Amino acid sequence: MNQALICPRFEKAMSLMSQRWTGLVIYQLLTGPKRFCTLESSIGISGRVLSERLKDLEHQGIVKRAVYPETPVRIEYSLTEKGEALEPVMREIEKWSQTWLPNEMK
Amino acid sequence: MNQALICPRFEKAMSLMSQRWTGLVIYQLLTGPKRFCTLESSIGISGRVLSERLKDLEHQGIVKRAVYPETPVRIEYSLTEKGEALEPVMREIEKWSQTWLPNEMK
DNA sequence: TATAATTACTTACATAAAGTAACTAAGTGA
DNA sequence: TCACTTAGTTACTTTATGTAAGTAATTATA
Description:
Two copies of one chain form a homodimer.
Chain A: H1 8-17, H2 22-29, E1 34-35, H3 36-43, H4 47-59, E2 63-68, E3 74-79, H5 81-84, H6 87-100
The structure holds a DNA duplex (30 and 30 nucleotides).
GO molecular function (chains A, B): DNA binding
Organism (chains A, B): Cytobacillus horneckiae
Domain HTH hxlR-type (chains A, B): 7-105
């Protein structure tokens, strides 16, 4: 009795976005390429999970990894076209949060 | 060294949306009020977690619960105005998924 | 020359979140 | 009285995430 079955593509997108931290990682990358340690400290995610998420996002073609053999080595993560295409989603979440969530009080 | 700190309201919205199942529950409620068992079977969520999520969403003013003392009792969950306001977010996720995710093959 | 520093991770272990399946309560109906 | 239905809850298991220490490569410092 599966009355209203959900589009599998939507379901997949949602399961992606509903992984803890994934949204914030993408959001941070919307402002340009970022290094591992920068993402780690700005988001407050643990290195263990960040590493896992970045690998996953890379496999899904949402994030790309670039190695610059400087000293010390610099590795930058950025969004692919597929990743950049998530910007409207982020903008709508931003709009909603500004309309419906209270401003933090001091 | 917190270089690019994220807006706390956005962060809160994102932590909401990135809870497992929450997005799908809201998505299902966009098409009208639903009962517990309907959500349970259409989403594939366990009763234990669905109960938890609905309580949480109710506390946040996103979902409302209505009791109809029929036989057997009917309880319907629906979106508040705040919940309905998440529709554009869902539409953008839907659009993205249709553009960027492959159609399931048989 | 040995020690320390930096970045980008990985590993082992602890805690929190989610899944599973059985159970409860209230109200019929057979 | 026993069974059926809905809307949960409870106890227990599995999975996901957090924490903190460790690794490898390269250079800087004492």
